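Lab notebook page, bench 4
Experiment: in silico fold of construct C2
Operator: M.H.
Input chain length: 314 residues
Purpose: comparison with the prior construct
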Amino acid sequence: MKQTLYLLFITMLATSLTATAQDETIVFTPQWTAQAQFAGYYVAEAKGFYREAGVKVRIEHPSATQPAMNRLRQDECQATTLQLCQAMEIIDGGIPLVNILQTSMNNAMVIVSARNRNPLTHKGAKVGIWSVGFGQLAICMSNKEKLDYQWVRFAQNVNLFAAGALDATLAMSYNEYYQLMQAGIRMTDKNVYRFCNHGYNVQEDGLYMTRKYYDEHKEQAQRFAQASRKGWEWAAAHPEEALDIVMQYVDRNHIATNRVLQRLMLKEVLRLQVDRESKKREFRLRPDMVRQASHLMVENKMLSREVKYEELVK
């Protein structure tokens, strides 16, 4: 009788702990404000994919005073999106991270030069770079080419460049690139340098958790990743319906944009998810790209040591 009661108690305790873990909400903070860059996650929430997977997810965007990584450090969110180079810097800084889903398979960064000038011939140019990061590969390239760029930090828009205060600016092919086009900047093969075409095709956006949280919530994390992937696959198959969902988030968060820009962004983000070699949307971190990024960043003293692929994966 005592053994039966003991076994019953153990079963009830295990069930209770499992239910508690499943009931725990994952707060997900994308690395930027609401836009089509995060369409798959919005779709997964709006279409009920997270609920079907048995995981509770709440999407909370960052603010100017509380960026996504700060929220992760302070346990205000359990997951965020990061570019691979960013994630490596954070790991090197002493915070172990796990990549639970890789969405980007290609690099989106470009340099746009003014006056139809080749960015690689414009030594000493004043070049805009994001104040929140993202420019690691550009710094590596400029050092290698001995361009001696003067980096000018900006928050989130292209006003400095459009006003003529900069000689060139970094841009993402899914974001600022289209803002520049709308501002009347002419884009040509001569004045646009695409990093992915010049030996710097390093993956960008992935979905990350701290190693500690992942180890304590593996099943929940894996369900979250699988449902997020389903959201991206649905967005790729239904881009206009996905755009409708994106615009709901944009309106809800009072973001100054328009449907035309968000449509262009979604199309480009989805294109960047297709691996150049396999021609498939693989949703995986590539070891060769991890090695390339790590070597470049160590060489340019952005990392104190090589960050290996095995440190990033589950």
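Observations: The mean pLDDT is 90. Residues 124 and 149 are 5 Å apart (CA to CA).
Next step: discuss at group meeting.
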